[in-house]
Amino acid sequence: MSEKNVAILGATGVVGQQMLQCLEERDFPVRELVPLASQRSVDAGRTVSFRGEEVPVRLAEPAAFEGADIVLGAADDATARELLPEAVRRGAVCVDNSHAFRLEPDVPLVVPEVNAGDIAGHHGIIANPNCATIIGLVPVWPLHQAAGLTRLIVSTYQAASGAGLPGLLELEREICCVAAGEEVGESAPFQYQLAENLIPQIGGFNEVGYTSEEMKMQNEGRKIMHLPELRVNCTCVRVPVVRSHSESITAEFERPLSVERAREILESAPGVRVVDEPSSSRYPMPLETSDQDLVWVGRIRRDLSAPDGVSSITFWCCGDQIRKGAATNAVQIAEYLV
Fold first, then answer.
1. Is 177 labeled as catalytic in the residue annotation?
2. Which member of 178, 239, 244, 262 has the greatest number of CB atoms within 10 A?
3. Rg of the chain's alpha carbons, rounded to an integer?
């Protein structure tokens, strides 16, 4: 692979830092690394570590993209909308982790294990899907290919670090407060105390009572899998887990699919590891699936609520939302570009 100049927009954040690690781990052909962040990071003299060197952080501004071949975006929606088109105008291809461009009709939304072919249709920007969407679709897709997916019922149990560094730090602070018998007080960025609690809200509510995070599973899933009529019912819950999202998924199909065949398909599916041994209490859990790139799948079983004649499979999966749910997925897309 030919070497590329790679810029990371938001290089000092949780996802930006993970992108750096993934580039290094996967031996991505980086000629020059350009870490970009806010004026505050620049004024503080921030550096990022890459391949044994400390690389100074530069100010995220249009001129910083001159000479960049690939830009990995790990900034907020507003920053992405402001700066990534500037990078494209200067000749770069951008792989963006924000929500800013995901549902734009001319922007590919890509999970490489599912729709890598869509990358070729980009016009300078390729969108990285929502973390929970990625983790759910990696195992759902091969089952769809075998039996034709018609409906998804999903409950997600999303780690605190899915809210970025503020979420991670807040959970750690709250755990310390609870352990010390102190009042937790203000819980931002969460609506309520997360330690010793579950919060059934991620994002704002729409007019029919679903949150923005819940609608991503439907809207992004439809686009990624090219299933515009797919029916999805999703409930997203923030849980007091540091890292790695978990999901309970019931998938309904138009053609017969046995539990045994579903397990065989998942055992050979790219990006999936089957851990499904009920007799010895082996199943995916956040502690085991953190800091790695596979989506672990277990608890594979027949949907007992399915009407007669309806093929429906239920399973449980876990994946690291900072790696496969964000940084690694973006780097995988970039690998296709080179």
1. no
2. 244
3. 20
